[in-house]
# Entry
Amino acid sequence: MFKPLALAAAVSAVFSLQASAATQLTVYTALEAEQLKSYKQAFEKANPDIEIKWVRDSTGIITAKLLAEKERPQADAVWGLAASSLAILDQNGMLEAYAPKDLGKISPNYRDAANPPAWVGMDVWAATICFNTVEAEKQGLSKPVSWQDLTKPEYKGKIVMPNPASSGTGFLDVSAWLQTYGEPQGWAYMDALHQNIGQYVHSGSKPCKLAAAGEFPIGISFEYPAVQLKRQGAPLDIVLPKEGLGWEIEATALIKGSPKADAAKRLADFSASPAAMELYKENFAVLAAPGIAKPQTELPADYEQRLIKNDFAWASKNRDQILAEWRKRYDGKSEKVAQQ
Amino acid sequence: MTLPLTHGNDRPRNGVALGHRLFVVGGKSLLLSLLVLAVLLPLLAIFWRGFSAEAGQGGGLLAARELFASANFHWLLGNSLSVALTVAAIVVPLAYLFAYALQRTLIPAKGLWRGISLLPLLAPSMLPAIALVYLFGNQGLLRGLLSDNIYGFWGIVLGEAIYTFPHALMILLSALSLADARLFDAASSMGAGPARAFFSITWPATRQAVFAAFCLVFTLTITDFGVPVVVGGDYQVLALEAYKAVVGQQQFGRGALIGMVLLVPALLSFAVDAWLRRRQGEAMSGRAQVFEPKPSKLRDGCYLAIVLLVCAALLAVIGMAVYSSLVKFWPYNLSLSLKHYMFEDTAGGGWLAYRNSVTMAIGTALIGSVVIFTGAYLMEKTQGQRLLNQLLRLLSFIPMAVPGLVLGLGYVFFFNLNGNPLHVFYGSMALLVVCTISHYLTTAQMTATTALRQLDGEFEAAALSLKAPLYKHFVRVTVPICLPTLLDIIRYLFVSAMTTVSAAIFLYSPDTILAAVAVLNMDDAGNVGGAAAMSTLILLTSAAASLLLAGASRGLLRRSQAWRQRAPGY
# Structure
């Protein structure tokens, strides 16, 4: 008598357990590793029935991974990837357009123009020069204040910048110089800068790390590692060149064909919500939703005004051509030096 | 060639024959299908990618012609070749002298030197390069010793030399481990000096291993991007170009094309290896006496000096990397702390990644060693199925030349293909194990083959003439004889699995993230100290496993390898 009853109870218990078990959402991200914990906690607190599984890597690798998996996507959503990368995924028809609940609060510059948008911005990161004051004194270097300053002969071999072919931050720099100076002058500027480059590296934050460690006194990087390293006590000055800063949007998108589309949409809702902006403001000075950001003491109050007018459509469309030209000119630097 | 026995034509009786054929033909067929699935098809997926002219992917015949004709490509190819040739020219002679010192001289503390020389195997390949930057970079400890900083050609050569040294050493140690004392006795009784004896006995018996080691170092160097990424500066190489094309530009086609170019050295060395094989007789007969070196102060002194020099250099490099993981903020705050080891506070995988790596390494070592050693035995020691043998040899030679990144991408293309029933394995631990075994197949197999080739074919002939099925002979005779080699293979696979990153980076899922990937993630996130700490943890784990296996090896040697000693009273 008892046995079937106990069995039924056990079975129903298992089912109810399964029903209450959280949906696992696979989320690809290029966010800085130390940001992930608080973002995940906040989202799961607001959505207790969903659990985030992160796949984190640098912008280039995550983008390459998503493209490689085009036929059979593994990710349900992307939370924190460069908008220019998301634009490439969108061109490949891999994104599910969706208008999150708080889309109205997002500034129109910081979202995909289509309606509903393929991606929605979170925050902005921008070009920054990291300048090591201890090494500058040792080597008698003056502090640069503009992009043009970096072409002075005194910096020969002292500057590191990310290779645009592998780094999203590197591409952001090149695209910004071409837009600020116009194409022929932009390349002429890079020709001059090239004479001073000690090394092109493959990640956007590495130049700042190298500058912080004094390995090379000047690093062309972005503001997040600069602020973090300065807070850790690195002897850095954060230089924001007066001609204006190239920048990029960190954004959220849904992957087309995900079997967990409903949960993914709730992630997109959360990512655009004021609660999420409260999280982003701890790390970034410019947010996609205006009026929430607080100034960071390491950065000037007019930081957002220093961003250049950035044409993402142009940059995304000409990406291959720009990279080909860049590689033709500067890749294989040692060869040209040897031939001179 | 002119063996008195015609055992190839001997047909064992029915019951035995069935088991025999099942072992030989079945084993080879199973191995072939595994290799087809784990090596060939993923590679074909790369070829398909390389020649498909999908827009923006940099692939297709037109793009191929353009790439191969460009000055930039020629420059990269020239750089890759000169780095790989320089590294091989430095590492192989050095590793030969080192192996000779350990196997054929009476220098003291051989176990210690051997342990130190294998240290670079125990950590991710970026570790020696990072250490070189800390030693010879602009803020390096020994910066004053060099006129220019380390970045560039010599940085890559030094880093790769350290990274490949133990790989070459493993092959040469194995080749020099067996020698027939009777030949040396005969030589000295005929008045031949040590030099004469070396060139007429030792060199002919080991030159094929030297060639194998040369090929291995060459292809390992030409396909590695870990060292050039860290210490190459603007001196670029092909493997790095493939990495950049795929990761930075999402040009899978271009990456696949360069990957194909990097396959050429492996195919060439396969051809030469096959040619050398035909010329090489069997070195060790069933009646061999184990060679014992005679004391010589001068010889041992010279070799000890070489060994000490190499070990000091290796220790300095590894020690520097470990030290840098303990420094708070290089170079401005040199106080020591364990803060980089607090993985809970930093994302990137942390302790889950570490546990996964240990699981993956155990799976790879156990499954891989059984499959690879059995396969090598079947290829070397059985008659017939020549075509099958050639095919197996070709397939198992290929992984050495495939950069891990390209292999990993091939796995993504193949196992994530629409309609592939094997898709369920995508992102699983099982696929990581398969991929890692495939990636490291060649060295393990070369080690097995080198040891097996030194066993006389008469052993098999004897087994067959006694009507003993081959699998029994294999389990009861060959495996015990080759146990030291087998344990070497297990150890090699374990540490390779602990340290691999390039193939796994495209294959892990959140549940199966690995420690070496976490190293990369942490480094990428700016947590260099954490990356160094995780590397050190990998190093310690690999070292502990190696010591454990070495202990087991010693215990087993005492029990099953007594035949290597001279008979008492001889």
